[in-house]
Amino acid sequence: xxxxxxxxxxxxxxxxxxxxxxxxxxxxxxxxxxxxxxxxxxxxxxxxxxxxxxxxxxxxxxxxxxxxxxxxxxxxxxxxxxxxxxxxxxxxxxxxxxxxxxxxxxxxxxxxxxxxxxxxxxxxxxxxxxxxxxxxxxxxxxxxxxxxxxxxxxxxxxxxxxxxxxxxxxxxxxxxxxxxxxxxxxxxxxxxxxxxxxxxxxxxxxxxxxxxxxxxxxxxxxxxxxxxxxxxxxxxxxx
Length: 239
Description:
By secondary structure, the protein is mainly β. The protein contains 5 helices and 13 strands. The longest helix has 8 residues, at 11-18. The chain is globular. The two termini are 20 Å apart.
């Protein structure tokens, strides 16, 4: 799955990278994005590509309330075409969620303590430092009481590649630059979209341990992405 990620780049920078305009201006500087946080995503309508703001955690257009959004942060590639919460967005409302890194946790048993585990956080990123392009879906939901519009998104996941398998059995779908146009196109055939929902090549990502500070959703700052050079029992206890 993908439950936490880093999006430090501003809307302006993302627009330059993805050949888009800026519809919603976000400062970026998010190194510990958590469910229901506001994020930037790239969308396209016709020939107009734009960076817009969304809440992470999809609220389907037919949902009676926004409750449950935190549970819909990820859509499984294997069932996204048929799952009621995602199938309409898969056909009509796809997006790209840029991220410089995402986090996963390796769990270790604690000696002498039954069922106790120690969670060791890792960052996953591209070795070249370029942002990843997560395949996403978006939806616009209307509050039946206030008529307020809420734009939300989710990230599609697939089976983990060999690089990630030791941390988790799932990973975000990462689109190659050559596939951005096809994913965002209004008229893309379902067969083409389906073919893009695959794990990234094993050599496209690197993993390294980071500070347990990332465990707390209130933690923020670029230091969260710094490699942790030595994991000690004392540091691990903070997690």
